[in-house]
């Protein structure tokens, strides 16, 4: 499969990287990471080292501010298994908002890659699901997470450099299992909204 149309997302999505066995039915998107699949450039690694790769399902959003929202559920098995909302503007310019087993507790985590990747944990989650939201506001992006889909916690606000200014950003979904044997990820309550959040830090 190379393309997938999801009614809640007003642009086509294309599979990138390893086969994620992506499927959509009755409002639920499902993907799967294979063994030791990830998307990360170690901050202490060689600058010329290629990025590792994981299954991604991405598309080009309309111009202007937007929000992509989904409740993410992960079939955790091993450390760092994760379901991800993903932003991509270049081979070394991309970002992940994850529900990750980090290393043995479900945690909202972020990675921003500008040449090399950083890695930061936000807050832990009870259970295997959380709501994630990625927004574009102007030339910047914002990450939020929510336990109930109503009250949002501000996680991160950042840019990805000059490439983002061209409007060539791709957004969508990713699954990873960096050290494990693979995991399944589902996304439901998917929504795409034109316009960014009213206030990045007010919980709305």
UniProtKB/TrEMBL annotation:
InterPro entries: ConA-like_dom_sf, DUF1349. Residues 1-24, 33-52 are annotated as: Disordered. It comes from the Bacteria. It holds the Pfam family DUF1349. This is Regulation of enolase 1.
């Amino acid at each position: 499969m190379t393309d997938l149309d999801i009614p809640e997302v007003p642009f086509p999505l294309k599979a990138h990287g390893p086969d994620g066995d992506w499927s959509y039915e009755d409002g639920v998107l499902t993907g799967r990471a294979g063994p030791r699949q990830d998307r990360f450039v170690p901050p202490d690694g060689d600058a010329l080292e290629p990025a590792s790769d994981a299954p991604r399902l991405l598309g080009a959003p309309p111009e202007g501010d937007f929000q992509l929202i989904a409740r993410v559920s992960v079939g955790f098995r091993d450390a760092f298994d994760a379901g991800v909302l993903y932003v991509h503007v270049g081979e070394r310019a991309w970002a992940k908002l994850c529900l990750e087993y980090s290393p043995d507790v479900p945690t909202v985590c972020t990675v921003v890659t500008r040449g090399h990747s950083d890695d930061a944990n936000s807050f832990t989650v009870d259970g295997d699901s959380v709501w994630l939201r990625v927004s574009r506001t102007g030339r910047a992006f914002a990450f939020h997470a929510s336990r109930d889909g109503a009250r949002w916690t501000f996680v991160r606000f950042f840019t990805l450099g000059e490439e983002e200014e061209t409007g060539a950003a791709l957004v969508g979904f990713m699954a990873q299992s960096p050290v494990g044997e693979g995991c399944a990820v589902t996304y439901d309550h998917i929504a795409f909204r034109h316009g960014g959040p009213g206030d990045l830090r007010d919980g709305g």
